[in-house]
Every structure is written in structure tokens, then in C-alpha cells.
Design a protein that fits this description.
The structure holds two protein chains of two kinds.
Chain A: E1 2-11, E2 14-20, H1 22-27, E3 33-37, E4 45-53, E5 58-64, H2 68-75, E6 81-82, E7 84-89, E8 100-106, H3 110-122, E9 126-133, H4 142-147, E10 151-156, E11 163-164, H5 168-175, E12 180-184, H6 187-197, E13 204-207, E14 223-226, E15 229-232, E16 239-241, H7 247-254, H8 258-270, H9 273-277
Parallel strand pairs in A: 8-9, 8-12, 9-10, 10-11, 12-13
Antiparallel strand pairs in A: 1-2, 1-6, 2-5, 3-4, 3-7, 4-5, 13-16, 14-15
Chain B: H1 22-25, H2 38-45, H3 66-74, H4 78-86, H5 92-98, H6 111-114, H7 120-133, E1 148-152, H8 156-167, E2 171-176, H9 184-187, H10 196-208, E3 212-215, H11 225-230, E4 235-238, E5 244-245, E6 258-260, H12 261-270, E7 288-292, H13 296-307, E8 312-316, H14 328-336, E9 340-342, E10 345-352, E11 358-371, E12 377-381, E13 387-390, E14 393-396, E15 400-401, H15 405-409, E16 434-436, H16 439-442, H17 447-467
Parallel strand pairs in B: 1-2, 1-4, 2-3, 4-16, 6-14, 7-8, 7-14, 8-9
Antiparallel strand pairs in B: 5-15, 10-11, 11-12, 11-13
Helix pairs in contact in B: 2-3, 2-7, 3-4, 3-7, 4-7, 5-7, 8-17, 12-13
The chains are: A alpha/beta, B alpha/beta.
Amino acid sequence: MYRIVTKKELAPKIKFFEVHASEMAEKAKPGQFIILIIDEKGERIPLNIAGYDSAKGTVTFVFNEVGKTTQQLGLLKEGDCIWNITGPLGVPSEIKNFGNVLCVAGGVMIAPMLLQLKALREAGNKITTVMGARIEQLLFFEEEMKALSDKFYLATDDGSKGNKGLDFLKNILEREKFDRCITMGPVIMMKDVSEMTKPFKISTVVTLTPVMVDGMGMCGVCRVTVSGKMKFGCVDGPEFDGHCVDFDELISRQRMFLPEERLSSLVWEMRGGRACGGE
Amino acid sequence: MAESKPRPKIKKEAVKMPKQEPKARGRNFNEVALGYTEQQALEEASRCLQCPKPQCVAGCPVGICIPDFVKLLKEGKYAEAAEKIKERNALPAICGRVCPQEEQCQKFCIMGKVGEPVSIGRLERFVADWERSRGVKIPKKTKPTGRKVAVVGAGPAGLTVAAELAKLGHSVIIFEALHLPGGVLVYGIPEFRLPKSIVRAEVDYIEKLGVELKPGYLIGRIYTIPEMLKSQFDAVFIGTGAGLPAFMGVPGENLGGIYSANEFLIRVNLMKSYAFPIYDTPIRIGKHVVVIGGGNVAMDSARSALRLGAEEVCIVYRRSREEMPARQEEIENAEEEGIMCKFLANPLRFIGDEKGWVKAMECICMELGPPDESGRRRPIPVKGSEFVMDTDTVIVATGRTPNPIIQSTTEGLAVTKWGTIVTDENGKTSIEGVYAGGDIVTGEATVISAMGAGKKAAKAIHEYLTKK
């Protein structure tokens, strides 16, 4: 059992959890993820690690309430327990002094990107950060991200804050030379960013979040095609070379269980879901 | 001189196992084989000749004293019979259900020469079930040795090692990567062959022996083997199994609706998606399910698909029926339930619809050539024999390979080119104090052979710890 120490709402439907997991806190590194299961009837869901504190013995993660499980998770309170958390999983990020690094983060993945920024900063990199969300209200960690960046840009899909969309990234790429690009966010965003950096030959790292069950290489549902070869998101990743990933296949595979996910949410709501848990 | 008593006539045929009717069972996940009644068990036990030199024992990978337990059963001493089995086997209710007895103990039974061998597995199951229903007796604890052993993986090998070492007084912690213990017993073998409540009960017994269980620990990531040896453990046993799916490498394999058998079975068994949406993990099953492969995993997948509501399930196997590695009993069960088989065919590619979902599979017919290194006749494609099968769900059950995480994070651990760990006959690896056994050493094999390896390794670890 893993106890929730801190719970915060960072933005509508975006929740921050700090859980007590001392052994994991000792071992976790940027780029890794956990798999959690709320209770015995629950499903196993992967979440990227957003922070760890070995002195306090805690690990943090941020999630978006989109399906049944994340909505149910969002109802848990400080002091409540999560049945099982497995981690750290996945290959840690390569962290070193690359030189000039461009970091592009979107949506809920801003949280693990903050952890990357800290590590990249410590390694001595110069950092240009672009962070974005669908609308202004969904942005979070703005000050924290800014504090770790040499240059900082905001973007929203509707232009409600900062730049409208990510097209301005092309101008940045034309103006400035980068040694590496790290992008974390919705698949479509990572696909676009990878396409933009390709002509500039900037090595681009994407963090993939395919469907997973066990998260340790057993089921193969997270398989992705990278440079024409089959790779497993959970054990070969979650990070891959953005210029080699077959994004269209990934998008199609992520939609595989959409009808079932909708059904699960619906049944949960009909049974009183949110009202039952109460807040 | 005393008059010689007339010998009672011994029946040549074994008492049949009562089963759920094929039609009914094809639509539920309840256990298919219902188990002997007391009367049936006594009748079957009476067929045992109590050979002075029993051959059956030699056929048992863990060396259960078979005639002794059968004798106790015959005398109605069920508790004593259970104790006798548990001297050698900590998981009798499991082995009584999933061991391939026809290849082991029963293969050597002398009754097999005149008729059917004694149904040792069914008797083992009866005794274990009898004991479980009345409360399992916990053997007395031995004086603690002060030695500490880490067991990696709570599958058949790891559970056996843990039980044996705990009985000898060593302190044992099992690290299990998944959230539940049991390994292939919980993620691989379906409920209708091995109810999970039985696995739970047998694991409870092992915990009561004093073994500590830590689920959700992926060794290699949270701790490495060298770290474990350096910190608190005097020895480590690796029983991480063969849990990686093998894909075929044919075009279209990443289309929607194509599962590895591992994914399919993990969803259905471990995550109980047959009870979706009461359980949260979904599974989608179409109308025309194709299962590729001819082993027990293929049978389990096909029979699970049928129970999930598939209209038809067809097993596609590249050799013929004779070469199928699945247990005969399981093939018969599957056929009784209405599963079809297409022999001598192999997939070439999968064809998807506009939504990225599989809609058909192109195959080629095969013929059998001379035997290959496995001793089975090699399948050879027949030129120009391509054909297309409609399907909306494909389960790839063409084998499982060793889990690689420990091998890649343990410096100095000798590994074969297939990724299995190199050990001597007692499970000792190339690193002092590190032992391994089960599928991680042999490649995909049986529950009982993993348990046999666990027993040997436990003995070797005990010797190592005592000498140390």
C-alpha cells in the first residue's frame, strides 16, 4: 500500500500526487515511469515520474482525469492509499551537458519535463523551454519552468495565452542552433515537433506513452515501430528518437480500446462514480 | 498351509474425471475438471499396486513418494496423505491440475502396461483439495539460521525455493514484479484450468511458512542483483521465467486486434477482463478469432476466446496434429468445446481495414519435411498455396522467451545466446551466491520442471549457506 502524502489540483482535472514510496524515491531517475493499480479490481496504468525526494521518501506524479481510472484516482485524498505502485520502470533519460537544449512540453507532460529541466540544468545545459496547453487554464508550473530556463516561451492551441499553436517554433529553429531537442506531450505534438526539427538535424527525443498492461516487457501491447523495428515502449523506452518513430501507427494503436474506455467511464458514472467517492 | 486369498480383480480403466459439459463450459470461466469425489478417489487409489520398486516416483521431477501417499489415501488418512505429498511438493493443488502427468509419473506406472495408468495427478488434486477445505496444517518452524535469501519471481520455481529454504530455517523474501504472486500460474494459466483462489491458498501456505512477499518490485530496476548481495542477502535465487512474447515478424502484426498470447492471457487471467467492466481492464474479442501456435498457451488462448463470446475460434498451426506440443488432454478439451484447427498453415501477413484493425490473414500451406533439431518434422512452405482467411481478432501464441532485465543489469552473469541463464545441474550460476532455475534457465517449459529446478537449487543454496 502506498499512502498519498500531498494532493494538489494544478489545473482543472489535472492532479498532483506525492506518495510515500521510500525505496522508489532512492532509485528513480528522470525519464522513468511507474505503474499503479488503485485496488484489486483496478487496471494497471503507467504514469511518468514527475519528481522524487529520497530524504522524504516520496515520489510524485501528475495525471489528467480522462478515463475511469484517473477519475477514480482523482477522488483519493491525502492519507488514502493506492494498492500497488511498481517502479521505477523504463530506461532513464540520458542526462549530460549537450550544450544548447530545446525542451518542448505539452499538457500533463509539463510535469515530468520539469524534472528533466532540473537535471539538464544541473548538467550545465543552456535551456530554451516551450510549454503549452490547449487553453490558458490548463497551464501549470509556469514559474517553476521559467526559473530553470534561459529562454522561455508559452503557447496555447487557441492563443488564449502566449503563442497560438507551435508554428513559431520554426522561427526559433531558424534563428538559433540547438544540440538536442527533448519533447514530451500529446503524440500529435511530439510528431509535429519531430517533423520541425528534422530538417535542422537536431537529435530529438520523444517520450512515448502507448497503451501498457504489465509495463515490464511481458505483454507487448506497447509495441512501437522505430526505424522499421519492433520496440517495446515499456522496456526499450519510454524515450525514443523522434525522427525514427512511426507516429501514425502509434496514434492508431492508442485508440484501440477507446470504446471500452468510454464504456468503463460511463458504467462508473452510472453507478454513482464521482458522487460516491465525494470530495 | 493357509489358503491363498483370491486376488481382487483390478480394473484396467482409470476412473474418469467428472467435467463440466462442453456446451455449458464453453461459455463460463469456471473450472472444467470438477475433481474426484471421495468415492471415486478411493476407487482409483485401489488400482495402485503398491509396487516394491515404484517407477512412478522416478518420473516425478520433485520425487513425491507416490505409493506412500496413495496408500494413506486408500486407508482414508487424507491429512497424512497431504502431509506426505508436501514433504516433497509445496503446491500440490496446482500440480494436481496442471502437471503433464502422462509424460511423468503416470508414464512409468506399471498399470499403464495392462490398461490405463493410475491417475496420480487426480489423486494428488483430491488430497490437496480435501486438505484445503479443512484448513491447511502448518509444519513446525525450524530454528532460524540467521541467513537471508532473496528470491526473484514468485512463480513455480521461486515459490518452491522459498518454501524449501523457509522450512530449513532461512529467512526468505520473494520479490515479485507484478502486483500478485504466482507468476505464470496467475497471468498465464486460465481460471478454468487453475482457479486463482487455489493459487492464492497455496501462496498463503508458503507465507505461513514464514516467507515474506513483496509484490511490485521489478528487480534490475529497483535493485540489482549485486546490490542485493552487497546489502542484506547471503544468497539470491533468480526465477524470473520466460515471460516475453515472441512475435512472428510478418507484415501487419501491429494492427489493432492482434494480441500476443501473453497480452491476451494477462488481460484475461491476471486482470480478470472477462469480468469487464466490473474489473477495469478491457478486452475486445471479435467474431472470428484466429490463434496461431500449437502449444498449451495456444489452447488456453483459444478456449478463453471462446468463453469471451467469440463465434468461432480457429487454431492455425504450421505442423500437423501429431507434432502439436500441447497436452493431449487440452487438445481434446478444446475440440470438445468446438475449437477448430487448421493444420499445416502459416501466416504470411495481416491485412487491415481503414481504421487500422485486422480484417484478414494471408497464409501459406505447409508440408512436412525431414525432422529438424527439435526432432519434429520441419514444415516447408508449399509454393503457390497462399490463401486468405477472414479474421477480426488474432492471438499470436508462437512461444515465449526469457525475461532479459536481470541478465542485462547483472555484470558477470553468464548467459546463453538465447538469453537464458547458465547454471550447473544444481542451479548455481557464474556468480557466487547466485542461483537460478525454471524457464529462465531452460526456456519455456512446465510448471513442475520449474519446481524441480527450484528444489535442487534450494538444496544447493542450503549447502552453500551452511558452509559459508
